[in-house]
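Internal ticket - ligand job 502, 2-aminohexanedioic acid:
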Amino acid sequence: MSNLRAPRDYHNFIDGQWVPSSGGKTFENRNPANNDDFIGTFAESNADDLNAAVDAADRAFQGWRLTPAPKRAEYLYRVGDILKRDKEKIAREMTREMGKVLQETRGDVQEAIDMAFLMAGEGRRLHGVTTPSELPNKFNMAVRMPLGVAGLITPWNFPIAIPAWKGMAALICGNTVVIKPASLTPLSVIMLAEAFEEAGLPKGVWNVVTGGGQEVGEPMTKHDKVSVISFTGSTNVGRDIAIACAPSFKHVHLEMGGKNIIMVMDDADVDLAVDGALWGAFGTAGQRCTAASRIVAHRKIYEQFVEKLAGRAKKLRVGDGLSDSTDMGPNVSAGQIKTVAKYVQIGKDEGAQVVAGGNTLTDGNFAKGFFHEPTVFAGVKPDMRIAQEEIFGPVTAVMQCDSLEEAIAIGNGVKYGLSSSIYTNNINNAFAAMRDMYTGIFYVNAPTIGAEVHLPFGGTKQTGNGHREAGIAGIDVFSEWKSIYVDYSGALQRAQIDTEEI
Ligand code: UN1
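stdout (structure tokens):
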């Protein structure tokens, strides 16, 4: 632990300054693997703090908007380099505040680095459209313009990657940013702000306000000067945000729940599918929007698959994510552990069988953290609550099917549509599932997790509201189209009227 930061008071980052909340309130942040490990206090902000940050972002907007995009990109390249240099340090602090194992927090920082570089590259593209006019001596094009102040509300499960997905896209398009990180993982976003500060980003372009959803998030969704909100979190909170943004027609991008499925066909490489299911279900202790919380296995390989999966799940080593010998870290909070335990009970009451795990861990080293065993339910029916509702913990529900068609019907039979996957060696099955699964992300012979930053990320149905982040799709959220017509004929030319009939 010696190379971790000493506890201290962290402040908001507003207009290039580190400032405490105007109300003087703070909240504590502790390690979910060991509650005695105190990380520091953070500003418990209020609407005045949020207003100050939005005013700073609004003042900075004109200068930033008019900074050429390739110049804006230079700051992003610099931030990418700083994150690369500090990757290990940031990853360790992130494991300490969020719990997932070090390999995964390194991946989280890497995702932020990748996004910084991807969006920096966009600074020399941000392509628009040029197209012929229907009239002579007239030039037509459509260009992207920024919206203004972007309000970002980000989750705790990818504490730096998701802020970077949203933030890098917002900045390269010429928007300024106010971000409210999840209260369970504020330090990761503070560390990102430190990188922006070191990169010399102009003051007011990136602002961080820590604190609660009601105190900071809600006023953000209602603020006149915030033009777009981008949120990742639960479907219920996403709905409230959409409603709060509706009266002012604020743009809103929502990335919400998932109930992702792995389909294992009778012609699959079963051992490969077991590897994928373990990683998909128990990576990040199941706390990913993309987690494989459902599996459907063909009747012919079902028994074999369940036995192997349960055997491997029992062998996963649960513990402190900072230790090299840990495969799966704690859940992020007491509340999260309670939800997991509640759903395990629901699954038992519904008649599903626990074939691995099933318990909260409270003895010895586990006593001071929020640990739960990797848990596999078998004999699950598609309409059971554990097969329908997002749990966001280390629990997966295995079902049985007789055909690809049935697997697809089960797969699509939930209210979410984020990610899905098939294990098969039959190319026809793979292509049919690729076409018919109504999810925003689909994998063949890989689990439901593992999205890369240069492809669109998001989902259908109650997972999203039609937008995507990451890739080029990510810049659609943070830019508006302006269609421009330049008439150099010297005469009045009327579209649709002064065109010659042929
Ligand atoms: C999330 O689950 O909220 O594809 C994000 C993945 C990661 C991102 C997940 N690259 O699982």
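Auto-summary: The mean pLDDT is 97. The two ends are 79 Å apart (CA to CA).
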